[in-house]
Prior knowledge:
Elements (H helix, E strand, L loop, with lengths): L10 H11 L8 H14 L3 E5 L2 H11 L7 E4 L6 H8 L3 E4 L11 H13 L6 E5 L8 H11 L2 E5 L7 E2 L2 E2 L8 E5 L12 E5 L2 H10 L4 E2 L16 E2 L10 H31 L5 E2 L7 E2 L5 E5 L7 H10 L15 H5 L8 H9 E4 L7 H14 L2
Parallel strand pairs: 2-3, 2-4, 4-5, 5-8
Antiparallel strand pairs: 1-9, 6-7, 6-13, 8-9, 10-11, 12-14, 14-15
Helix pairs in contact: 1-8, 2-8, 3-4, 3-7, 5-6
Amino acid sequence: MINYSQQWIDETDQKAVNDVMSSNYLTQGPKILEFEEAIASFCGAEYSVTTNSATSALHLACMALGLGAGDWLWTSPNTFVASSNCALYCGANIDFVDICPETYNLSTLELRKKLETAKKNNKLPKVVVLVHFAGQPCDLAEVKNLSREYGFYIIEDAAHAIGSEYENIRIGSCVYSDITIFSFHAVKNMTTGEGGGATTNNTNLYKKMKILSSHGITRDIGLMEEPSHGPWYYQMMDLGFNYRLTEIQAALGLKQLEKLDNFTNRRNEISRIYHESLQSLPLKLPYTKSNIYSSWHLYVVCLKKETKKERKDIFLSLRSMGIGVNVHYIPVHTQPYYQKLGFKWGDFPVSEEYYHNCLSLPIHYGLTDEQVSYIINSLHECFK
Ligand SMILES: *Cc1c(COP(=O)(O)O)cnc(C)c1O
């Protein structure tokens, strides 16, 4: 099966992992710091914290921003459930903003409308999570302006978008946001197996996320509330978690990051080949804004209304030909857990219409030109 996404691990990755295995530290050693600095420097942010997943990073980001009971978090329904679950972990309320039918990102137009209504009802969000779907950044400057007007924080969920750019600025620089989070899960553009992280330019948010990622414990005398008892002493300042990445993972992440630009270039190349070769099919191909550079985490095509074909049939045909197509995403608000919170089918119609027609084609660094041709030819077969 040609997977829709696939990690690329080479000998330098394997050697880096092996070196850590025979070192003194498997966790909480020097590689973590090195990886955090490398991520911050790659993104052009002041600070970075690594975590054992993007889900953990989202939780820490919400906690650092003080999200709690009575607060609202808004995000896109066209995402993985983690983007909204972070609100529920904090005891906050969740709501969604429907997507733009072109980019499939949270619609800035809908956001503006919803903010106006929310202001009248005194239900403005404390946090908006912007998901850069498929690697295409959201309208960051416009949302930043709205955040100034309506007073909410911005978390960028960049699980798809490490290596993407907005107005020639790398995602993760946090020029337009408070915190950006990344995922290094094996299907993402670079991997540590499981893993994630956050970047920020705010010292206070950085310190909070860092300490919460390790039980809320500090060994920094300057932060303690009583004099230290001795060199063994630590204080628990807050109720944190064990959300730490290991040294093994950090060593892998460092080597993956060195290759990320190559990974991204290849993904861009494949997206161009798809774009040229699928024009004649009854498919809506991805629309890319001119002020962005995409990491092309996903290449999503949507079946057009005029085609007599069903998405499910195309999906099953391609799978039977060994092509691991996938569907991103089932709108979060339609999940049973979310329906129990009061959401229902019909609440966010653009995301639902999109969901019924979308199909993610394989795209990743290791995909060969022959495989890309095979996928293209197979798609043409499906529509004959
Ligand atoms: C993968 C993903 C996450 C969760 O990442 P994990 O590292 O698996 O926790 C969150 N948001 C989006 C948009 C994702 O694609």
